[in-house]
Design goal:
By secondary structure, the chain is mostly helical. It has two domains: 157 residues, Alpha-lytic protease prodomain-like; 68 residues, Alpha-Beta Plaits, CATH 3.30.70. It is 62% helix and 11% strand. The chain has a three-stranded mixed beta sheet with strand order 1-2-3. It is elongated, with a radius of gyration of 25 Å. Bound molecules: zinc ion.
Length: 241
């Protein structure tokens, strides 16, 4: 619970700080901090999952008595708290990777509460104490799955990968088909932070009087793809390697 509170605190702090305006030293502001926070959150999720897994392993090897009543009581309170948090976080979890990290954290906790409820009920009803560690293993696997996705997505952003929902070939073809454009090279599409996609590219435009109409057509094409930060270099001949 302490690790969860720390992770949620981090997500909240970063969501606030990321709104700060850009400065000459940091021309993108602190937008990427959200991605870093999501990565840290993913790493914390893995640490928590491993911790639960190790604890479950010890208990599987030497089962210890489980107070089913206490387990049920604590799990019920936890379930209510996690349901409330999940309801609040659900609204934005598809837009921001940072918020999704927090959402997945609470979702993992919710599964933990449900697992603990089931384990408590089983122990009370049947006295089968192994239910506790076995359900813990199940929760560990679920948490590992979402942590892996979070780490993969935030790493993709940090590696400047082309966003999943955009095909670089499509971007290339759209630009190449603009009248006046001879060819396209050095093309990059990347995510600055969740929802902020940038593109840069070199365009060979033989006739300089085409530059302005080409630029406007490219901006329109990119806007249609959801790319809102466009930087284009016009060249008469391909002068760069
Ligand atoms: Zn070039």
């Amino acid at each position: 619970m302490l690790a969860d509170a720390a992770a949620l605190g981090l997500a909240l702090f970063v969501a606030r700080v990321a709104q700060r305006p850009a400065t000459p030293e940091r021309s993108f502001g602190l937008l990427r901090l959200e991605i870093l926070a999501a990565l840290v959150n993913g790493a914390l999720l893995i640490a928590i999952a491993v911790g639960i897994g190790i604890e479950a392993w010890h208990r599987l090897r030497s089962p210890s008595p489980v107070d089913g009543g206490l387990l049920l009581g604590v799990a019920s309170v936890g379930l209510v708290a996690n349901l409330v948090s999940l309801g609040i976080l659900h609204r934005g979890h598809e837009h921001s990777l940072n918020q999704r990290g927090a959402y997945l954290h609470v979702l993992g906790d919710l599964l933990g509460s449900v697992g603990a409820l089931v384990a408590g009920a089983l122990v009370l009803a049947t006295g089968w104490t192994l239910a506790d560690p076995l359900i813990s293993v199940l929760i560990t696997l679920l948490v590992l799955g979402s942590a892996w996705r979070l780490i993969k997505e935030s790493t993709d952003v940090l590696m400047e990968s082309t966003p999943d929902h955009i095909a670089l070939g499509d971007v290339h073809d759209r630009i190449a088909s603009v009248p006046g454009v001879d060819s396209v090279h050095d093309l990059h599409v990347w995510t600055v932070t969740s929802g902020v996609v940038a593109m840069s590219g070199h365009l060979v435009v033989k006739n300089p009087t085409d530059n302005q109409p080409v630029l406007e057509a490219v901006q329109d094409q990119m806007r249609a793809l959801g790319i809102n930060h466009v930087t284009v270099q016009m060249e008469r001949d391909q002068t760069c390697d």
